[in-house]
Amino acid sequence: MTASPSSDKRSIHPTSVFMRAHPAHLLAMGFGSGLPRIMPGTFGSLFGWLSFNVLTWRWPEIFTPLTWLALIIIGFFVGVWACNVTGKNLGVADHGSMVWDEIIAIWLVMLFVMPASTVMQLAAFVIFRFFDMLKPPPIRQIERRFKGGFGVMIDDIVAAFLTLLVIAVWVRI
Hints:
Largest sheet: none
Oligomer: single chain
């Protein structure tokens, strides 16, 4: 990690060395997509969107909707562990560099908007980022109530559900 001597724990920014030091760090930091100092959540979400599309396009017989659902569920629980370990090692329970929550949540969103045009996927991405960044109710309350790895993961799942709700209403109108 890098930090100046007078910095507090929130200004600590992990390096790629820290990320590679433990498998939980590598996963929680989205294989490096959470390392940018500016908008790491957006980079993590972009990584999730891109990986969903590439894997689904390249291996459609493997990455079926049922496979994605299983990966999302398993990824959520593994993410609770990874974010808990990484948060403790960073000294910040929900450090911005931990983006596995965004990846799992955008996979959930993409699972329900696919197959869709690139424009619809982009709209889903933007709506998800809106909910994830602004944290309107009930997201903020959930974020405050739950701590540790579960707290890191669950608020983004709620943001994904709100995104899907908005898209469902939008499609109906």
